[in-house]
Amino acid sequence: MAGLTWVAEIGVEELPARYLPGLTADWGTAVRRALEEARLEAEVTVAASPRRLVAQGTVSPRQTPLTRQVKGPGVEAAYRHGQPTAAYHGFLRRLGVGPEAVRVVDGYLVAEVEAPREPAERVLPEALSAALAALPLPRSMRWGAGEARFLRPIRWALLLLEDQALPWTVAGVRAGRATYGNRTDHPGPLTVASAGAYADALAQGMVMLSQAGREAAIAAGGRRLAEAEGAVMEADPALLTEVAALVEWPTPFLGRFEERYLAVPEPVLVASMKGHQRYFPLRNADGSLYPGFVGVRNGVGEDLELVRRGNEKVLRARLEDAAFFFTADRRRPLADREPELDRVVFHAELGTLGDKLRRLLTLAGRSRAALGLDRQEAVDLGRAVRLAKCDLLTHVVEEFPELQGVMGGIYARMDGEAEAVARALEEQYRPAGPEDAIPDGRVGQALVLLDRLDTLAGAQIRGIRVSGSEDPFGLRRAALAAGRVLVEGDLDPEAAILELAAWAAEGFGVGGPEGREVARAVTAFVQARLEGYLAERGGTDPALVAALLAAPAPWGSYRRRLAWAAEAAASPAWAEVQRIFKRLDRVWDRSGAELPEVPADAPAAEQELAAALAAPRGEADDDLGGWWRWAQVLVPVVDAFFEAVLVNDPDPAVRARRMDLVGAARAALLEPVDWSRL
Q: GO BP, one example (predicted)?
C-alpha cells in the first residue's frame, strides 16, 4: 500500500535465544491487531535480534473513516407539540451535527456521527504501546527503580515516521533517533535520519536484522569452511535457529580438535560440541565424525585466529572431561549399577527407580503373551527392563542428561548384551514429542508401552494430575507415547490396553474393582491424547482409533486393525453393522451376555440367531476378514429376530433367555470395535 514509512525499535539487553522466534511472531500479531484497532491501515513486518525488537512498514496518513450511531433522547422528550425541544437541540449541539444527521429509530433519536480521523503521528505511538502491553511474555523481570516488566531490561527506543521522530516512551525510556550496533564492533549510538534509512544504519552498525538472513549466512559460511576441509557441516535446524538468535552479525570460523578424542563415543563428542558450545560438528563423506567443528562469532572477522584458538581450548577441556567420564564409566559393567537404583527417587509418590524396575519386571513377565512376544523377545524385554535406568547412574549421563538411553545402548553393546536389548535401551525415551518416531524394535516398543503404563497408573493412583498447561511429570507425553506404540507399532497384543493398565495398577497394590477403575481412567487418558494427536495430523479418523482401542478383545496389531477398519468403514455394510449394534444396545437391559441354551421349540428366528452366534467367526482368533464376513451375515439374522420375537416376553424365563441372546450378540459385535464410540 502507498503510505508513510515508519519504523519502531525497542533496544534491550540480550534476549534469551529460545524465546526469540516465538517473541517475534507474537510481536507481529500484537502490532497488527493494535494498528487495526487504532484504525490505521498499515503494512507491517517484524523482526528481532538478540538486542532489539523491531516493527516497520507503511501506514496511512490518517485513521480510516468510522461512522458510529449515537442514541439520544426519546421522541416524547425531543418534541413537544411537533416542535424540537431543548433536549433535541442539546443532543445535536453535543455531537456537533445538524438536523440532517438525525433520524428516529424505535422511538429514539439516533445520530450518525463521523469519528475524528486523527493523523498517524498522533495515533501510532499509542497503538505501539498497546501492542507492547498486549505482548504475551513467557517470563518477565523488573529492573531499576521502575515498575516496568519485560523479558530483559529496555535500554533505548526509536520511533520514526518518515523523517519525523515521534514522541514515545517505553518503560520510562524516551524514544529518539538513535539505534545501536552489535555490542562487539559498534557499541556506540548511530543516528537514524529517517525510517527509510534504518536498514543502512543497522548495516553500518554490523547488525543483520533478519533471523532468516542470519541463518543463511551461518549455513553458507559453515558449508564453505567444511568443504575446504573435505568435510560436511552437520545439518541441525534447531541448533541453526538457536545460534542465529544468539548473534547479530554472524561470522563462522573453523576449529579442530585432536583425533585421539574420536575414541570417545560419538554422541558424547557431539553433545559436547552442540550442547555446551553451540558448535556445528563436521563429518566425513562416509558420515563418520571429522575432528573439527564450525563455530560462530558475533561480529566481523577481525582477530578470528585468536577467537578460533580460544574456542579450541575451551572445547579441548570439555572433551578431556568427557573422555575422563567415559573411561570411569567403563571400569564396571552397566548391570553392576542395578542395586544402586534403590537410592534414586523416581517420584516422591511413586518410589525409587528400583521400585519401578521391580514393578516393570513383574509387568513384563505377565505381558509376554499379552503383547504377542516370542520366547527370545520376552527374555530380551526382561533384560532391557533391568538395564533401562542404569545409565542414569553413569558419569557421562550425569554430565549430559540428554544422552540418557543413548549411553545405555552404547554401554550395553560394549558389555556384550543382545542387540535387541541395546536398541531397546537407546529407544526407551522415544517418542520424545509428536514429531519423534516410536522405537523401531518390538522389544523397545514393549518397554516403552509398559514403562508409560506403569507411570500413568501410578499417577492415577497417587492423585497426580495434569492441569491446564501444567504437566510437570510429562503425563500427556507418556500417554501419547503409549497410544502411538499401540497404533503405529509392530506388537500383536492379545490383551486390551484396559487389561494391561489394570496389571500396571496391581504393581502399586491396587487390584479388583478399584484397579479396573484406575485402568479405565488410564485408558481414557491415552485415548484422548491419541485422538488429539491424530486429529491434528488428519488422514485418520480419531473416533475410529478410539473405537479400536476401547474394544475389549484386541485382534492382533492395532496398526493392522486400523488398516482393516479404514477399508471396512468405506463399505455400505459398515453402517448396517453399526445399525444392528445400536439396536441391540438399546434393547439390552445390561443383564447377562453369555450365549444361552435355546430350546428346540423356540421360534426359528431365535434359534437362527443362537446358531449364528455359536458359529466360527473366522479361521483363527485374529482373522479380521473372517469376522467381518460373519458380522455382515449377522445383520439380516438380527433383523429377523427382532421382527419375529418379542424380547420382553411375559414369561420371565423366556424374557431372560432372549435378553441374554441380545447381550451375547452385542458382545460379539464389540470384540474388535467399540461401536458405541462411533
A: glycyl-tRNA aminoacylation
